[in-house]
Amino acid sequence: MDDSDDDIPIASLTAKIAPAPIIKSEPKPPPAAAPAAAAKPKPIDGAIPKKVKKEVSNAEKYPGLTADEIAYKEKLKEIKRFAKIEKQQKKEKKKAKKEKEAKKRQREDSGGDFERKPKKEKKPRAIKVETGPKKAKATDKTQRLAQAMKAFLWWNAPTPPEGQQWSTMEHGGVAFPEEYVPHGVKMFYDGKEIDLTPEQEEAATFMAGMDKNGMHLGNPKTAKIFINNFFTDFKALLGRGHPVKDFAKCDFKRISDHLEEQKMVKKAITDGEKKMNKKIKDQINFKHGYAIVDGHIEKVGNFNMEPPGTFRGRGEHPKMGKIKQRVLPEQVFMNFSVENAPPICPVPGHAWGEIRHDPCVQWLGNWKENINGQDKYMQLAAMSSFKGKSDRSKYNKAARLCGNIEKIRKDYKKNLTAKDKALRQLATAMWVIDRLALRVGGEKDTDEEADTVGCCSLRVEHMTFNPNNDDDALEVELEFLGKDSMLFKQTIDFGSELYTTNNGMGEQVYKNFKNFCTGKKKSDDIFETLTPSILNDHLKNLMPGLSAKVFRTYNASVTLQDELAKKEKVENWDSLTVTQKVTNYNDANRIVAILCNHQRTVSKAQETALETIQAKLDTLIEQKKVLKKILKLFNKGGDLSLIPKKKSETEMKEAVTKALENAKKMKEEAKSNEEKIAATKADAEAKKLRKEAGDSKFSQAHLWENQPSESQVANKIQQWTQKIERMSMDLKNKDDNKEVSLGTSKINYMDPRATVAFCKRNEVPIDRVFSRTLRDKFNWAMSVTPEWQFCYEIGLED
DNA sequence: CGAGAGACTTAGTAACTAGAGC
DNA sequence: GCTCTAGTTACTAAGTCTCTCG
């Protein structure tokens, strides 16, 4: 890893550049240079501006070339150097291996009973002389930065002045995506080639890159919206009087093929190039990925400016497909402390739009996107102190709800039967938010956004009374699209024990809903008197700081804790393995995820994978039947020559090896793009062949090349029984969980301290339930005792 | 008081990568 | 040692909630 200080932007930034009140970047290149530069060969990856000093010497080395071309040449050189070193290392390794084998052969040739070389006499171990402190194990810069961040325990540090988030803050600003480099591949209109300007070509390329079977174009309804929006923006780019008028006549096939080819070229990347790319990525990361806040290193969450493209709104978003424009530095605001040097604008000839020094907000950068006119922010990462503090106080607030929940439930229980309709609606909504864990559901403009709802915006059409035609039941089917257009579809039985015992008031809620829906149109609001602010204001009166979303956090955390406690009470709990305990934890997690309606869409690939497992399972079952028949032959003294034999696999194996070797060779030798594409194609073919060979092997795995013995057959039957059992369990698990997303509740809803305490009580390593990033995000929660409980008292900590 | 700006949290999906399994 | 898959991370859309302003 390069440790030169030119890639450390922050600590040395202040020292390196004089503080300037107005931000200006390097002088703008003459406008005529821009299109010319675009036509130049594209650098392999994000071009890192070289030092001025180096540029001068390079300019002498390559007279007549532009800076970009020089940078490109230099990069190529470096890649070649890497490749050379790698080749050399391989050669040496091979040589060493050869020598070792030769020696081995020599020993074997001498009859195997060779005389061992007399062992060299061991030198007496030198007495270590302590020369100073032990040298730390070599670590790379990323690791050292991670250690530095870990060393800062914000929960022990003094807090900034009231209302302020920080006292000093400096950072490297946002990184911008590379300028668009035209590929020159034409689109066709009505069978004819169309010339496009780089800007138009870029837009056409966005469309060409869309997955035809993806979530936008794969669905006829959304595809129509997407294409309409795209084409409107595209036509605006083409200008008035342009021959392109009808989307149906547009053909982007050539461009999509070109994109496919580019992907293949990228796949055929050598190890040297991979290393080079990683190095470049690291450098950008060091430059923009860290901030210094009140003297501590903090990780930045998002420092890459969102690149232009098509807007991918979810569900039936009315604006999906519109072109998301490229954001220029002039549109971006930077926020940092006044005494620090401003981040350098990385785009030559441009400057930041505005400079702020506002310590009351967390954001480092801010810009507006052109689709919905919404603000976007550059912020610190989830593991930072900013996020950690707000996360902890979120969970503590939810814990305080433990001590207030009885009072709140009493309050809405009383109001459920109030004479005032508004009060009854308020109480009913509170019941829904508490018991069904729905979001509050703010008002939405369906011309601008997808039509999704939450509690306050529920409409009559979302409720079906008596869906099962059972007049005695108090059942209601709730069906609507929630956040991210995720379907919520549940039949609520208000008469069930779940909603009637412990002051559940299920029957009353059912009555209220019936009452609120009568005499209304389908498109009318159920709670016409209620808004999120009325609801939240009321909640605030019951408990300071309380809002609707706290109920989701509270319910998720309490549910997790209760479910875990239930599991830990099982008699044989202590004898369970760590893996079994983790499975139990995941089961509890799943209950929370279902409560919060956290879903994921099953992708085509996942669906195919499931089908493959099912097919394999079917094969195994068939094979077991065959094995049983063979065993019968033994038992009944039948003709053993009838036992089917395994066909030779050698030929196929050899073909596969040959194809794979050939593809590898092609990949290594590929220089031009055409060769790289050919290599990737050959590789795909070889892998296909290998898969076929694997399938064929699997289909006769139960057989033998020679006649088996009875015990061999019996053994195999036992093996197959176990295999079938394992595979069906696996399939069932995968099928049950394919649509539930466990991650969201783990990241946002369940108090991490409950998980940490569970792990400590049960000697489950924390990394079995929290990934690296989650452990970093929840670093403040790691020190709790095994007895820790999610309760009112812990909420009083801050 | 309501609308909307502004700030921050919550969310699913696409892309990437580590490590289990052959 | 290599591949494939499951788990993880990056990305950015879509919510909630507070505060200000007219």
UniProtKB/TrEMBL annotation:
Q: Which InterPro entries match?
A: DNA_brk_join_enz, DNA_topo_DNA_db_N_dom1, DNA_topo_DNA_db_N_dom2, TopoI, TopoI_C_dom, TopoI_cat_a-hlx-sub_euk, TopoI_cat_a/b-sub_euk, TopoI_cat_euk
Which segments of the protein form a coiled coil according to its record?
603-687
Enzyme Commission code(s) on record: 5.6.2.1
What top-level branch of life does the organism fall under?
Eukaryota
Q: Which UniProt keywords apply?
A: Coiled coil, DNA-binding, Isomerase, Topoisomerase
Q: Which SMART domains match?
A: TOPEUc (SM00435)
Instruction: List the active-site residues.
Output: 749
One BP annotation, GO? DNA replication
Q: Which PROSITE patterns match?
A: TOPO_IB_2 (PS52038)
Spell out the PANTHER family in the cross-references.
Answer: DNA TOPOISOMERASE 1, DNA TOPOISOMERASE I
Catalyzed chemical reaction(s): ATP-independent breakage of single-stranded DNA, followed by passage and rejoining
Name assigned to this protein: DNA topoisomerase 1
Q: For the region Disordered, give the residue spans.
A: 19-51, 86-141
UniProt GO molecular function: DNA binding; DNA topoisomerase type I (single strand cut, ATP-independent) activity
DNA topoisomerase I eukaryotic-type domain boundaries: 310-763
Q: Family assignment?
A: Belongs to the type IB topoisomerase family.
Instruction: Specify the species.
Output: Triparma strigata
The EC class name is: isomerase
Q: Which is one Gene Ontology cellular component term of this protein?
A: chromosome
Task: State if Iron is listed as a keyword.
Answer: no
Residue spans of biased composition, Low complexity class: 34-49
Say yes or no: keyword Isomerase present.
yes
Cite the record's Basic and acidic residues compositional bias ranges. 98-118, 127-141
